[in-house]
User: What shape does this take?
Amino acid sequence: MAVESTRMLTVGEVARRSGVAVSALHFYEAKGLIASTRTAGNQRRYPALVLRTLAIIKVAQRTGIPLEEIRQAFSRYPPNSKLTAAQWGEMSSAWREDLNARIRTLEALRDSLDNCIGCGCLSLEECPLRNPEDVLGKQGTGGRILENKTQ
Assistant: This one.
């Protein structure tokens, strides 16, 4: 276990093992999400634990969590630290309600795609029935019916 936490990887090894482009690794490092050390020849070296951090970043981004929120979540811990189960629980629970809200919105959108979502477009045959004279447009922008379902 101690060997894995002290093993150092080149930027190329990290890119290959994580599936993250070298340019993205540099970007994440500039944003403070990951950290490297430098060799005497000024080459970056990352601890093997960075692979876990990168996996979390990739999954979080794939679910739509903004990079700034990811950075804020990681900023509570030292760079390249091995998160405990409790720390991971804190981090993931902070994202849970936001993800649940997105799920509700996506479900409402899925269930409304065949009908009017209240966008005010007046282009569907149902709009004169559901949104006569664009009354929903007076309530605000966007999909008013859909937004009301998700709130």
